[in-house]
Amino acid sequence: MNRRHNSSSSKNNFVRIFEVGPRDGLQNEKVQVPTPIKVEFINRLSRTGLKL
């Protein structure tokens, strides 16, 4: 996670969250997740409005 420290008076204070489940999270599964399941997972995440 990259953090930027700006003064609290900055007008550009924001938090950016990235979903990395399709890339990093699936590596923790005990069995290999088939590609069609990964595609469905990514499609469902993208329908939530998350930027992948």
Automatic annotation (TrEMBL):
E.C. code: 4.1.3.4
Catalyzed reactions: (3S)-3-hydroxy-3-methylglutaryl-CoA = acetoacetate + acetyl-CoA
Keyword Lyase found: yes
Origin superkingdom: Eukaryota
Recorded GO MF terms: hydroxymethylglutaryl-CoA lyase activity; metal ion binding
Pathway of action: Metabolic intermediate metabolism; (S)-3-hydroxy-3-methylglutaryl-CoA degradation; acetoacetate from (S)-3-hydroxy-3-methylglutaryl-CoA: step 1/1
Stated family: Belongs to the HMG-CoA lyase family.
PANTHER family attached to this UniProt entry: HYDROXYMETHYLGLUTARYL-COA LYASE
Protein name: hydroxymethylglutaryl-CoA lyase
